Amino acid sequence: MRVMLIGDVVGRPGRRVILHFLERIRREQRLDLVIANGENSAEGSGITPQIFFDLVGAGVDCVTLGDHIYRRKEIYTVLEEDARVVKPANLPPAAPGRPWTVVKAANGVQVGVVSLLGRVFMRPADCPFTAADRVLAEIPSEVKVRVVDFHAEATSDKQLMGRYLDGRVTAVLGTHTHVPTADEQILPGGTAFQCDVGMTGPHHSILGRRIDRVWETTLTFRPTEFEVAKGDVRLNGSIVTLDPTTGKATSIERFVFREP
Ligand SMILES: [Fe+2]
Ligand SMILES: [Fe+2]
Hints:
Blueprint: E1 2-6, H1 11-28, E2 33-37, H2 49-57, E3 62-64, H3 76-81, E4 101-104, E5 110-117, H4 128-138, E6 145-151, H5 155-165, E7 171-175, E8 185-186, E9 192-194, E10 201-202, H6 211-220, E11 233-243, E12 248-258
Parallel strand pairs: 1-2, 2-3, 5-6, 6-7, 7-9
Antiparallel strand pairs: 1-11, 4-5, 8-9, 10-11, 11-12
One fe (ii) ion binds near residues 8, 39, 66, 176 and 178.
């Protein structure tokens, strides 16, 4: 069984590559389930209901988010009502959304999906490690396949989470930095791990934003609108192959698709 996590979808270019090519990628890569991090899908920040339903309609089975989750308040209702999206589990209980979900893959296997936020160089949240313990205990025990999107800045934090959850989940895959790391591996307990799967959007950019705009603010301290860039659009993600009867991962591969 094969599951892909697509890295942070940035703005219209990121959505476009998914809307036009995900169906083909799903077929060619024989994917049973696709999870996408959509926290930057609405003009680079947040997600709207329309965009959520567009992504789901294009073949995304579950959407994870991150520090930009609540930028568009229109999404609150979807977060409360739709089982195909999760909030980071270490946000406070009163924050809109569900802390874990279970979605059905194309082969019929139930997959638990969890999102967690890091705390290094990010707005403080509750402890992601205890939050992970809590939600993993809540997910029904018959759900063996469990994927964690760890949305965090520091590679050390991400390695700690990978080791902490090794043997307890199918995969701990990072998002948020928008830069893929070359450390994909299967940990000793059978958990697939990678610090960051990268970004889906324009790579002629600074993390998806127009280079000139970021330069202007950096050099002059004048605030500018960090508009989403346009060039060199790529879909970045990682594909985990796993045994659905045990939930253990057997391989992980980085995946990149360049928009023609
Ligand atoms: Fe992001
Ligand atoms: Fe983020």
